[in-house]
């Protein structure tokens, strides 16, 4: 007791706790936003929450979402740090990692400064930044990127497609060499730009412009080839890469084979590859544009492959890839008009708030994955890969008290009207879920309560998180393998 006062700021009692590894029953004592005690019959808290045997899991980490990111055309992302982090919290996410995107001709530092200004005073929950490198000049490679990695921006994304973003293989190798030396994580958007351009040109010539043709312009082989190439470049320099938003069997096979031969290849998938199919692009009129994202959703067999790969440990990260464009209005999906051809529609769908409930309902309650796998892919894995563990991503003494008390119930449909983002639709409208975060706690503060609809009115309480080097990637086992595999020649080249 503190002079007769409560022992803790908050106690969550009777919690059925799951981490990435364990399941146990305990009370959780929180002081100053940090978990300070786990035990039975803990002393009192200034605030008490009775979980009554419900699941209490680490808060979600959404390690791939786009908030208030400049798009380069007249489209505008509908969610900024305020609406995006509010929506995230109401869906059980307590940390987001969006992207500070370098403009071609601009510096990385400018992108980071601009992104901090966009986030400042607006976030409800904690956030870190990935970088996006679009212009790897000698200055970027030799000075800016190493300096930013040292200051807590330890992961960067690169694109193999999109004219305004894409890098060629030589540029990718330049960046992988920096990542290798500085021990940073490289995330790769793997689709073959020339195949997409070639196919798109031919489809448009024949008048195939509707949203459904988006999927045909980005067939699985287009993703497979780029995934294979990204893996090969990673192996050439023996440095880890993480293939983002993997959509189906062909890319999975590339990743799985690489993992089996011991290559340091990590992968992410997203709800759209489990819960949407290409048929969702083929709706009346322009409705299919709501589900245009890249890579596109595939077919039911590919969904099955993604589920199996989730269960078999192929994926370390399950993210939303929230890319929020409104359907109605001039700056979202219709930025180039009501019936623009598929290649003119902004890519991306909303999903920050629905990510965890969908996976918990179908995955855990549906018996496809266990609760530890759920925690691993939605929280612990991203925390480890992006240098936030063990402060984030687990329930342990000394970790931030980022917790979710889960409600389970009879099936209820998702309704966009109930969500908190600033997008005017959800691709999951009407889909049933059987669970939803009942209470979201961020550093000991309740930020969301489902029973009452309470959302903390506390924009700006979220803190920026500088990331450590993702040590999990560079453990001695990996370095040992490197030596054994005869990569000594890399050292001879000063790499
Ligand atoms: N890639 C992303 O990572 N997000 C949205 C669209 C895209 O192509
Ligand atoms: Zn991408
Ligand atoms: Zn994305």
From TrEMBL:
GO CC, alphabetical: cytosol
InterPro entries in the cross-refs: Amidohydro-rel, Hydantoinase/dihydroPyrase, Metal-dep_hydrolase_composite, Metal_Hydrolase, Metallo-dep_Hydrolases_sf
Signal sequence, renumbered to the chain: none
Highest taxon, organism lineage: Bacteria
Record PTM text: Carbamylation allows a single lysine to coordinate two divalent metal cations.
Keyword terms, alphabetized: Hydrolase, Metal-binding
The UniProt record lists the keyword Cytoplasm: no
Pfam families xref list: Amidohydro_1
Record PTM N6-carboxylysine, positions in chain: 157
Keyword Isomerase among record annotations: no
Domain Amidohydrolase-related: 55-447
Swiss-Prot/TrEMBL cofactor(s): Zn(2+)
Family assignment from sequence similarity: Belongs to the metallo-dependent hydrolases superfamily. Hydantoinase/dihydropyrimidinase family.
NCBIfam families the record matches: D-hydantoinase, PRK13404.1
Family matches, as PANTHER family: COLLAPSIN RESPONSE MEDIATOR PROTEIN, HYDRANTOINASE/DIHYDROPYRIMIDINASE FAMILY MEMBER
Protein name per the record: Phenylhydantoinase
Originating species: Caballeronia udeis
């Amino acid at each position: 007791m503190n002079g007769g006062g409560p022992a803790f700021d908050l106690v969550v009692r009777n919690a059925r706790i799951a981490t990435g590894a364990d399941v146990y029953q305990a009370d959780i004592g929180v002081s100053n936003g940090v978990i300070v005690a786990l035990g039975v019959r803990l002393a009192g808290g200034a605030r008490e929450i009775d979980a009554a045997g419900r699941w209490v899991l680490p808060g979600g980490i959404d390690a791939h979402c786009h908030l208030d990111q400049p798009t380069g055309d007249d489209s505008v992302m509908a969610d900024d740090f305020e609406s995006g982090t509010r929506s995230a919290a109401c869906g059980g996410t307590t940390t987001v990692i969006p992207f500070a995107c370098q403009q071609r001709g601009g510096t990385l530092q400018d992108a980071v400064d601009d992104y901090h200004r966009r986030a400042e005073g607006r976030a409800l929950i904690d956030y870190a930044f990935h970088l996006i490198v679009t212009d790897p000049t000698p200055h970027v490679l030799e000075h800016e990127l190493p300096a930013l990695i040292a200051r807590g921006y330890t992961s960067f994304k690169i694109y193999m497609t999109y004219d305004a973003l894409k890098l060629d293989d030589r540029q990718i190798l330049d960046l992988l060499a920096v990542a290798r030396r500085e021990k940073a994580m490289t995330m790769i958007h793997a689709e073959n730009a020339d195949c997409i351009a070639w196919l798109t040109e031919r489809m448009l010539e024949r008048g195939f412009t509707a949203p459904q043709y988006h999927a045909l312009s980005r067939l699985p082989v287009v993703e497979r080839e780029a995934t294979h190439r990204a893996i090969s470049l990673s192996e050439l320099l023996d440095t880890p890469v993480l293939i983002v938003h993997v959509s189906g069997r062909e890319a999975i096979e590339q990743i799985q084979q690489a993992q089996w031969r011991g290559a340091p290849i990590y992968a992410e998938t997203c709800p759209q590859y489990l819960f949407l199919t290409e048929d969702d692009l083929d709706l009346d009129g322009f409705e299919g544009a709501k589900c245009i994202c890249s890579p596109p959703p595939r077919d039911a067999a590919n969904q099955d492959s993604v589920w199996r790969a989730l269960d078999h440990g192929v994926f370390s990260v399950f993210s939303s890839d929230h890319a929020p464009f409104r359907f109605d209005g001039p700056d979202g999906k219709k930025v180039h008009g009501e019936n623009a051809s598929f290649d003119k529609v902004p890519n991306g769908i909303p999903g920050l708030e629905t990510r965890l409930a969908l996976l918990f309902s179908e995955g855990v309650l549906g018996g496809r994955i266990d609760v530890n796998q759920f925690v691993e892919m939605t929280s612990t894995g991203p925390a480890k890969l992006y240098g936030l563990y063990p402060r984030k991503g687990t329930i342990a003494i000394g970790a931030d008290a980022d917790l979710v008390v889960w409600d389970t119930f009879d099936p209820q449909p998702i309704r966009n009207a109930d969500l908190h983002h600033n997008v005017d639709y959800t691709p999951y409208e009407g889909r049933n879920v059987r669970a939803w975060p009942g209470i979201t706690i961020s550093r000991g503060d309740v930020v969301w309560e489902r029973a009452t609809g309470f959302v903390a009115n506390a924009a700006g309480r979220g803190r920026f998180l500088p990331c450590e080097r993702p040590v999990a990637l560079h453990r001695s086992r990996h370095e040992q393998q490197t030596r054994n595999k005869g990569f000594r020649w890399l050292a001879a080249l000063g790499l």
